Amino acid sequence: MPENIPHQIMKLQAVNLTRKFDRKIIFDKVNFELTSGSATAITGRNGSGKSTLIKIIANILLQSSGELNLFNGTEKIKKENIYKYIGFVSPYLNLYDEFTGYENLKIISDIRGWGHENIDDSLKRVGLYHRRNDLLKIYSSGMKQRLKIAFAILHNPHMLLLDEPTSNLDLEGISVVDDISNEYKKDRILIIATNDAHERSLCNNEINLNERKLS
Ligand SMILES: Nc1ncnc2c1ncn2[C@@H]1O[C@H](COP(=O)(O)OP(=O)(O)O)[C@@H](O)[C@H]1O
Ligand SMILES: [Mg+2]
User: What is the CATH number of domain 10-214?
Assistant: First the structure.
């Protein structure tokens, strides 16, 4: 298991968050404050910057200007420790085709310094346990998406970031996302980047990048 981080109220605070690619402004001066026990949809048209914003929140991309801070209680979390608090499901996440589902989660756990005791539970949670020993290259796109979800919840994170989580999923897969989302939004921070009406309905708060402000 990852170290047991005391569970306090988390706060994610963005102040005048701006991202440019070259000279093109993708979004400008976005402000929000999210706390544990909330579910927020990042919405906006294709290309409005939803995936860009969620990657910045996940600390895998930097903002061009503005501030983004995550707090555990009153303690500001150092950038290098943010990954301990975050689970991220993203179309941009790469898995290893030459390894099994189980091995993929094991490799990630080893890289992060976590034990293996949550792997079976995570696989069961997403309905992949019976396929855990199959190579990823024979997984369907929906099965790969389920594995990404298992990866994201492996360390029981305090903040769950989902970028179009139900894409490629069947009805049963969608209900896995629903259950996990409903569980996480009770006492953690849930953020879903989406244009899908169903995914949006799981949230009670919205950051609309067309309007570029919290609505
Ligand atoms: N690495 C990159 N280099 C240049 N432009 C990028 C890069 N990544 C994304 N963009 C551009 O940023 C804009 C927002 O992309 P994205 O965040 O993927 O939008 P969304 O997820 O809302 O569809 C798009 O115009 C896209 O072309
Ligand atoms: Mg996107």
Answer: 3.40.50.300
Ligand 1: residue whose CA is nearest its atom 8: 52
Are 135 and 32 within 8 A, CB to CB?
Answer: no
Q: What sign for the dihedral angle of Cα 103, 107, 112, 113?
A: positive
Both tokens of 178, joined, read 């629903």
* Residue of minimum CA distance from atom 26 in ligand 1: 47
Residue 44 CA, closest ligand 1 atom number: 22
* Residues whose beta carbon lies within 6 Å of some atom of ligand 1: 21, 26, 44, 46-52
Residue-wise pLDDT tens for the chain (215 aa)?
Answer: 444 555 679 999 999 999 999 999 999 999 999 999 999 999 999 999 999 999 999 999 999 999 999 999 999 999 999 999 999 999 888 899 999 999 999 999 998 888 899 999 999 999 999 999 999 999 999 999 999 999 999 999 999 999 999 999 999 999 999 999 999 999 999 999 999 999 999 999 999 999 754 43
